[in-house]
Amino acid sequence: MRIAFCCSHTKAAPWLDGFHRALPHASIAEWMPGDSQADYAVVWSPPQQFMDEQPGLKAIFNIGAGVDALMKLRLPPQARLVRIEDGGMAVQMAEYVCHALIRHFRELDCYEDDVRHGAWSYRKPRRRDECPVGIMGLGVLGERVAQAVNHFDFPVLGWSRTPKELPGVRCFAGEAQFDAFLRATRVLVCLLPLTPETREIMNAANLSRLLPGGYVINVARGAHLVDEDLIALLDSGHLAGATLDVFRTEPLPEKHPFWTHPKITVTPHTSARTLRDETIAQIAGKIRTLEAGEPVEGVVDLQRGY
Ligand code: NAP
Ligand code: GLV
Questions:
Q1: pLDDT by residue (tens digit) across 179-207?
Q2: Cβ of 272 less than 6 Å from ligand 1
Q3: Active site includes 304?
Q4: How many A from CA of 127 to the centre of ligand 1?
Q5: CATH number of 89-266
Q6: SS3 call for 70
Q7: How far apart are the C-alpha atoms of 124 and 228, rounded to whole Å?
Q8: Which ligand ends up closest to the CA of 279?
Q9: Which of 57, 121, 212, 265 has the highest CB neighbour number within 10 Å of its CB?
C-alpha cells in the first residue's frame, strides 16, 4: 500500500516516522510532482497538481477538521475525503472558548490594566444569567464547547443545520430559527464549517441582532466574518469586543486594523492545533478499517461541503 504525504506548512519527517511506526507494511513518502500512484493521501492545503496526478486515490485524509481548502479543488471522483474528528482538538477548543468567554465576562483585561497602573479596583459582578452564550455549529467541536460553557453555568444556546437535543443546551436549527437564536445570544461563538451557506454569516445584519453589549468569538474560519462590519459595530458600541483566532488572510497582514483595535483580541490560529500523534493514530486506524472493507466515520459530504 502506498501513501502520499502532501501537507503545506508542515515538516514532513516526524509525520513520515509516525506513519511508518503506525503502518509498518505501508510505503509512505512526501509527494513530489511526477510520483507514481498512491492508494491513500494525507494532506493539508495541497496544490491542484497533486489531485490531478493522483486520480487513483481511494481516500484523502485531511489532517484538520475543516476541509474548506479542499472544496476549492477538483478531487479524484472516486476518492472519499475524510477529515479529522476531534483528535484532541475538542478539548483545546473548549479551553480556548471558555478562556475568552471568562476573560470577557470577568473583565480580567480591565483588572490587568488597573493592576499595571497600580490601581486596586472594584467592578460590580456581572449577572451570568444575562450572558447567554450562543454557539453556531454543534458538531464535534461545538458540542464539546457547549458542554464546557454549560459547566460554568452560563445559559447555553446552540444552532445547527439539522435539529439536535443536547443536555443543558437550548437548541435551534436551520434558517427558520436563526433569528430567534441570535436575538437570545450575547456572546456568539462561531464553530461552523466554511461553506457557501455560512460564508460571511457574521455580517452587520446578523451581528446587529445580538443582545446589546454582544461579544464575538470566531474560532472557525476568517471568511465567516465581515471584518468591516465587526469594526463598525464595535465602534458604535453595540458590540463590546471580540476574540478572533482565524482571519481571511493568514498570517494576519501587518497593517490590518484587528491588530491594534482596543476591543479585539487576536491569536494566531491556535485555538485547536492538529496533534500529530493523535492524528496519525486516527488516520492509520481508518486506513486499516478501509483496507478491511469496512466504512469509516468522518467522510465529508461533498454536496454539503463539510
Ligand atoms: P462538524 O463536526 O462538521 O460540525 C459542523 C457543525 O456546523 C454541525 O453542527 C452542522 O450542523 C453545523 N452547520 C453546518 N452548516 C450549517 C448551516 N448552514 N447552518 C447551521 N449549522 C450548520 O465540524 P467540527 O469538527 O465541529 O469543526 C467545525 C469547524 O471548526 C471546522 O470546519 C473548522 O473550520 C473549524 N476549526 C478551527 C480550528 C482552529 O484552530 N481555529 C481547529 C479545528 C477546526 P449539523 O450538525 O446539522 O450537520
Ligand atoms: C484547523 O483550522 C482545522 O480545521 O483543523
A1: 999 999 999 999 999 999 999 999 999 99
A2: yes
A3: no
A4: 29
A5: 3.40.50.720
A6: helix
A7: 32
A8: 2
A9: 57
Cβ atoms 26, 2 nearer than 8 A: yes
Provide the whole-model pTM: 0.98
3-state secondary structure 123-169: CCCCCHHHCCEEEECCCHHHHHHHHHHHHCCCCEEEEECCCCCECCE
Directed axis angle between helix 12-22 and helix 276-291, to 10°? 40
Q: What is the pLDDT of residues 259-269, one digit of tens each?
A: 999 999 999 99
Tell me which residue has its CA closest to atom 5 in ligand 2.
Answer: 64
Residue 269 designated active-site: yes
Domain extents in the chain: 2-87+274-291, 89-266
> Per the residue annotation, which of 221, 238, 256, 261 is the catalytic one?
221
Kindly give the distance from the C-alpha atom of residue 112 to the centroid of ligand 2, in angstroms, as a whole number: 31
Chain segment 287-301, per-residue pLDDT in tens: 999 999 999 999 999
Q: Which residues contact 234 (CB under 8 A, 6 or more apart)?
A: 240, 241, 242, 261, 263, 264
| Distance from residue 137's CA to the centre of ligand 1 (Å) | 5
Cβ 198 under 6 angstroms from ligand 1: yes
Which protein residue's CA is at the shortest distance from atom 1 of ligand 2? 64
For the segment 29-77, what is each residue's pLDDT rounded down to a tens digit?
999 999 999 999 999 999 999 999 999 999 999 999 999 999 999 999 9
Would you state the cell numbers that stand for residue 126, as one nine-digit string?
456581572
- Residues in the chain, how many? 306
Grid coordinates of 19 = 506513519
Same fold, 2-87+274-291 and 89-266: yes
Which protein residues are within 6 Å of ligand 2, measured from CB?
64-66, 274
